[in-house]
Recover the amino acids of this structure.
């Protein structure tokens, strides 16, 4: 089997598509033969990234979310990108419990969860242009 595989999808920034993105990521990761815990980690991180793109990136406007999944050897890379309002202060946004949407009962733990469940998280953003979150997870193909 080839040790490199890539899939990209683009979908409307509707909350209903968050579940779809989770399932796509889980199905793609299945080729690694991950543990159930690894699958849940990936699904949770993708959920947080996609929800951030929809809720914070686009707020009440329409837009598209782009998700790219890449397998190279034992490394899974998931990128979630929006073309919305962007983040003015990334370090502040990454602080646990910080939220710009308290009225929506947001916990402010999105980036903290992504960082807890993935091996690395890179956030790139330009105000007025959008945000790209790139997450990596190393999976040893079901090895102990």
């Amino acid at each position: 089997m080839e040790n490199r595989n890539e899939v990209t999808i683009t979908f409307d920034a509707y909350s209903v598509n968050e579940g779809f993105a989770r399932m796509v990521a889980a199905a793609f990761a299945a080729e690694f033969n991950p543990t159930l815990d690894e699958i849940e980690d990936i699904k949770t991180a993708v959920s947080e990234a996609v929800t951030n793109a929809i809720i914070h990136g686009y707020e009440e406007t329409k837009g598209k979310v782009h998700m790219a999944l890449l397998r190279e050897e034992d490394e899974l890379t998931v990128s979630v990108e929006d073309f919305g309002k962007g983040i003015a202060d990334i370090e502040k946004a990454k602080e646990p419990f910080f939220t710009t949407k308290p009225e929506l009962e947001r916990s402010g733990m999105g980036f903290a969860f992504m960082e807890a469940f993935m091996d690395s998280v890179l956030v790139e953003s330009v105000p007025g242009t959008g945000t790209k979150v790139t997450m990596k997870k190393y999976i040893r193909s079901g090895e102990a």
